[in-house]
Amino acid sequence: MRKSIKEALKRIEQEEMKIAIDKAEIETIDNEELRIYSQQLHKLKVDELEMLKVYAELGAGQRLKALRLVEKLHRENGEFREQADSHYRIINE
User: What's the rounded Cα separation, in Å, for the pair 39 and 11?
Assistant: First the structure.
């Protein structure tokens, strides 16, 4: 695996740990409207990291790992569902 791909996966993992902490903090927000908005932003960030991980796994030749991530993004029906569907078709060719 190329060094740049390993570094990308490591950075993604670090970001995932940071946003896991953020999620715990979001749950303590008293203002419901602000909490809901923060939860939506958090979900978007999680999905964005998952999509970045798809690219990194594909770059590393890990088609099965990428496929699992794409399937997860598809099931969650979020911002990246359309992109996930496109990648699903490409991976399965």
Answer: 22
Residues 6+ apart with CB under 8 A from 74: 81, 84, 85, 88
**Alpha-carbon span 91 to 86, nearest angstrom:** 9
**In whole angstroms, what is the distance from residue 85 CA to residue 73 CA?**
9
- Please tell me the pTM assigned to this model: 0.82
- pLDDT tens per residue across span 1-14: 678 988 999 999 99
Residue 2's contacts (CB-CB under 8 Å, 6 or more residues apart) are 59, 60
